[in-house]
Amino acid sequence: MENSIQEKQLVIHISGRVQAVFVRHNIKRIAEQYTLTGFTQNLPDGRIEVVAEGEEICLRHLLDWCYRGSFLARVDSLSFTWKPASRVFKNFSISTRGQSIIKDEHQALKHLSRRVVRRVINKVPQHLLIIPDGNRRWAKDRGMLVWQGHEVGAHNTIKLAEEAKKLGISFFTIWGFSTENWNRNIIEVKQLMFLFEKILEEYKSWFIDHKIQFHHFGRKDRLPKSLLESILHLEQKTKLFTKYHFAIALDYGGRDELLRAVEQIKGLTNIEEDDISKALDSYGFPDPDFIVRTSGEQRTSGIMPWQSVYAELYFSPLYFPDFSPAELRFAVQDYEFRQRRMGH
């Protein structure tokens, strides 16, 4: 920089819920915005360290941001030290301290899990709906095959369902395959159908042991015969369980659901809202009051358009395989403090 007199080095240490919630990525973005050089890294004790160099006024902008943190972060304490600039950095980077990216992320997620307070949550949603986005991108980032990302996501679904049950959430819905997903590569579609059938067989006893009633939402006429048989068999085996419910939306689309509902009731006169609700796939479930979508996409993609008019929305930046039970608890804690006005 031209005015070297004003150049300084700023070392910042941030404590709190700061790892695995995209703080480092945002620090890098802010640093680049102000043309700062240096690096940021996760420390083994759960803190984040920032070493930045540049003009003092720009460093103070970065410091101000670090006090506030990102959307998902919570800064408990912050310390900083001013030093002379070393002028050894060419740009601003995220350091993994010599570890692989995957190991660095894994350790960060462990620290995040410890930060989530295991306290009693007094207000939980009655019906939790999850849009599990990011399986493919998660796999590609790790050099894995796409179907392996879907498999990890499928097993994660059961972990989240277990956590939801512990929290006292009675109705749990996961969107597994949309009506538009048929447009994907035919090999991927076949792998997904095989995976759904495999997972149902693998966890059949889990639903029975946990006394959870299984449901399928969506069309049944286009699913492979063997998969449909597995679905119907599990629905029959668990139909007497009434306290906890698990639904998977396969070959489901919100508009398609409404079209099928209209077809059912088109012969009725004086149609009321309840007539439409009874014709929907989710009849018997309360309307979803909390919808969670992973991977950072901020849309609901048409899931339950009739039922979700008053649902609270939560968008996590994590890919679905990284959305752990601790992350779910964190999301439900966020829901707990919301005031639902329901149109009032």
TrEMBL record:
It is an enzyme of class 2 (transferase). PROSITE patterns: ACYLPHOSPHATASE_3 (PS51160). Its EC number is 2.5.1.-. It comes from the Bacteria. Mg(2+) binds at residues 133, 312. Residues 9-96 form the Acylphosphatase-like domain. Its cofactor is Mg(2+). Binds 2 magnesium ions per subunit. Gene3D superfamilies: 3.30.70.100, Decaprenyl diphosphate synthase-like (3.40.1180.10). Keywords: Hydrolase, Magnesium, Metal-binding, Transferase. The keyword Cell wall biogenesis/degradation does not apply. The keyword Hydrolase applies. Homodimer. Catalyzes the condensation of isopentenyl diphosphate (IPP) with allylic pyrophosphates generating different type of terpenoids. HAMAP family: ISPT. Belongs to the acylphosphatase family. Belongs to the UPP synthase family. Z-FPP synthase subfamily. This is Isoprenyl transferase. It comes from Candidatus Uhrbacteria bacterium CG_4_9_14_3_um_filter_36_7. The gene is uppS.
